[in-house]
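Students often ask why inverse folding is considered easier than folding. One informal answer: many sequences map to the same fold, so there is more than one right answer. In these notes we will look at a single instance of the problem. The structure comes first.
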């Protein structure tokens, strides 16, 4: 199993979020990319669009399935990872090193975010 970075929080749906100066950096976990298989397309949100807490902000498509991803924060999209447009498989190669979007946070549900240790325990339960 890949080391789970401790510098971010996790969701039960296998996404990660890192908060820096009021900006949430969002991505999917190594477990998520492994479950999806070869990623062939990432639908990036529009910059300047508003995302509500819990709304789908992206869809990650693989050879197996299309998986909508819910945002663990609400706010305005300020940046997307344009490299994923051309090279979506970057998420397979380095799920923790590639973000999908950055959102200026207006709403966050800290209670539903897991620490790395809690996320590791969740993965152990699911095996």
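Output (designed amino acids):
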């Amino acid at each position: 199993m890949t080391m789970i970075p401790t510098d971010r929080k996790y969701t039960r749906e296998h996404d990660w979020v890192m908060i820096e100066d009021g900006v949430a950096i969002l991505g999917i976990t190594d477990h998520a990319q492994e479950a999806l298989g070869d990623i062939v397309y990432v639908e990036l949100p529009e910059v300047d669009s508003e995302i509500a807490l819990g709304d789908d902000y992206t869809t990650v498509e693989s050879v197996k399935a299309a998986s909508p991803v819910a945002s663990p924060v609400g706010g305005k999209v300020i940046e997307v990872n344009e490299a994923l447009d051309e090279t979506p498989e970057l998420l397979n190669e380095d799920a923790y090193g590639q973000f999908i979007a950055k959102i200026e946070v207006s709403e966050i549900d800290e209670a539903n975010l897991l620490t790395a240790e809690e996320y590791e325990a969740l993965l152990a339960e699911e095996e």
